[in-house]
Design brief:
CATH class: Alpha Beta
Strand content: 25-35%
Bound molecules: adenosine-5'-triphosphate, magnesium ion
Radius of gyration: 17 Å
Distance between the termini: 21 Å
Order of helices and strands: EEEHEEHEHHHEHEEE
Number of domains: 1
Oligomer: single chain
Helix content: 25-40%
CATH topology: Rossmann fold
Shape: globular
Number of strands: 10
């Protein structure tokens, strides 16, 4: 359902080109759980950004259901991200003046999804945090709020960038189980440095210097 063809993402750094992704060919199938491993700086986050349309590749194409994300307008790409994709960022990204529950409901009319949002927060062990604000929560609790937000609305693909990095093993396992259970007919793409969290993955790729080394 996602098709990357010869994708390169090049950052400009003080006039120097940094190849965060180098000519990557990669497909993601419906229902697939894909794991991405690799050392720090190898381009894992960059790869997730281009796969999910958050960044447009410098070269090559990314197709979502045979449509080139890079050839669409910004609004159309943003709509696809909103309706079809869920994203867990490497660092928790919450609105400071909204509670945990309000942050989860951010993209939806609250009454439609409130029960689902509460269910996810409870499954993530956050029943006591629902009405608290980000400054009152730990890093790991905030990360779990982001996981609940990414799952809301049954996205077709969930992209998760180090979703368990701030968590102890047990909470990390709970996050992974929830991500795996809720992928439904969709796909799940997880970046992690902990191979244990990729138990049950259909496929694992390893990145090194912007390239896939398997
Ligand atoms: N905005 C930017 N400008 C210039 N270079 C960047 C930028 N963002 C990332 N890079 C570089 O691109 C490369 C890949 O970065 P990326 O964040 O994708 O790595 P990563 O594998 O996710 O690392 P980590 O495990 O530490 O999160 C690195 O060399 C990084 O320094
Ligand atoms: Mg990263």
């Amino acid at each position: 359902m996602i098709d990357l063809k010869s994708v390169s993402l090049i950052y400009q750094d003080h006039g120097k080109e940094v190849f965060a992704c180098k000519e990557i060919d990669l497909g993601v199938q419906p229902g697939e759980f894909l794991g991405i491993l690799g050392p720090s700086g190898s381009g894992k986050s960059s790869l997730l950004y281009v796969m999910s349309g958050l960044k447009v590749p410098t070269k090559g194409s990314v197709e979502w259901l045979n449509r080139d994300l890079g050839k669409m307008g910004d609004q159309e790409r943003a709509d696809i991200r909103l309706r079809e994709f869920g994203f867990v960022f490497q660092y928790p990204f919450l609105i400071g003046y909204l509670t945990a529950l309000e942050n989860v409901l951010l993209a939806f009319p609250a009454e439609d999804r409130r029960a689902d949002a509460e269910k996810f927060l409870i499954e993530l062990g956050l029943q006591d945090q629902m009405h608290r604000y980000p400054y009152q929560m730990s890093g790991g609790q905030k990360q779990r709020v982001c996981v609940a937000r990414a799952l809301l609305g049954s996205p077709k693909v969930v992209f998760a960038d180090e979703p368990t990095a701030a968590l102890d093993h047990k909470s990390g396992r709970a996050v992974m189980d929830l991500l795996i259970q809720n992928r439904g007919q969709g796909a799940l793409v997880v970046v992690t440095h902990d191979p244990v969290m990729l138990e049950g993955a259909d496929r694992i790729i390893r990145m090194e210097d912007g390239e896939i080394k398997n």
